[in-house]
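S.,

As promised, the zinc ion run. Input:
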Amino acid sequence: MSKIKSAEIKIGLEVHCQLTNLKTKLFCSCSSDYREKEPNTLICPICMGMPGTLPVLNEKALEDAIMVAIALNSKISERMLFFRKNYFYPDMPKNFQISQYDKAGGVPLALGGYIQTNGKKVRIRRIQLEEDPGKLSYEGTIESSTYTLVDYNRAGISLIEIVTEPDMETPKEARLFLEKLRSILEHLGISDGSLEGSMRCDANISLKGGKRVEVKNISSFKEVERALNFEITRQKSLIERGIAVGQETRHWDEVRRITISLRTKEEEQDYRYFPEPDLVPVIIPKDQIKKIEQSMPELPDERRKRFVEQYHLSPQNAEILTHSKTMADFFEESAKLYDKPREISNWLTGEFLSYLRDKGIGIDELTLSPKHLVNMLKLIDEGIISRKMARSVLQDMLLTGKMPDAIVREKGLEKILDREYVRRIVEKIFKENPQAVKDAIVDKKAINYLMGQLMKTTEGKIDPKMAGEIIRERLSELSKFATS
Ligand code: ZN
Ligand code: MN
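Predicted complex:
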């Protein structure tokens, strides 16, 4: 149907990520723990840009950024520079942002690199350190707002900016890239990607025959996919009607699920980049990089390989589990409690994941611990519940956070373990189906009908092995009786 093939779509991402492991801002000692704080209380003359103040680089932020560059296979600059990016939105009290630049003599923290995701290599263009701007709140919608509120608590928080080459061809690839990036940052312990707003993303997308459109400030991975899908449809329809797609910046409206034109894109010269005169060039010695490299935590790719070797998981399952650190941790903790890693991995990548996808939530949003899963596996292994029952117990457990043995007790599911109870039901079914019983005595295959009746009456909450045993026992008693 569509005239635009995926190969004719080019998507690049610009990801901003707060370094949430840091206690203070990038250039001052204000607390970076700004969530749920009174607006404009975590500020000082430095992050407010008062005359006569001087910024001082947070060394820990630099170390974090170096770790990211190593993890993304980027080339770290020996001598990096900070640049001023000038602009006139009210979100930076100084009217400029201390950032980095890769043109006009600018040298960012790192250049090049890549992330491998699902067999696809997405190249990194650059990685830089910069300040987060303050937070603007609009009254009503962004277009109709008559006033804007600003909170500078966020202004000056350490951000790393990661810019990719336009190597992605579908919105799904963009989402997978972001998920992989988040998993890497989580494994490095420098960013909690699950926190609202700690990872933000701008996406640029161009279709063959059109100009590059940038979509700003997308807040979640699901939204990235939605926003890009919307843009593909919008741009396609323009191109097919012979209308030119102009270069512009658009805003993603999550509520209405559409993009809105914000402005025609600034030219880079509008930002009047120039070297930050208040900061000296930062020399990054080789042995510092080496030291950081040696103390790096395990990354998702290494962990994936280890999962295959140590737990004998399939490469696919190992990939799915290490896609998020929380999921990988959940798996390993469960495997420590119960030595059935393959079984655990199958439940997590199967039923667990489809539940999470259905609800559109992450595993960290569940009120569950590995103990819950292990408890359920033990109930199966001890024959207390069947696999089929386990699925419904699991749904209950995911929904309520209750322990599986409590769910089984509450619902009276364990009654079915009671052989006497099953025998009584078998007796009742035999009485109601005398012909079927006669048939089953002479023809073993006819037993299936009785089994079916038993399963129906007990709503399948019964171990088929035990059910078969009891029916056969009773039939052989009856046949002895009949022949004697
Ligand atoms: Zn400050
Ligand atoms: Mn930026």
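Residues 298-411 form one domain. The pocket of manganese (II) ion (ligand 2) is lined by residues 16, 130, 161 (CB under 6 Å).

- D.
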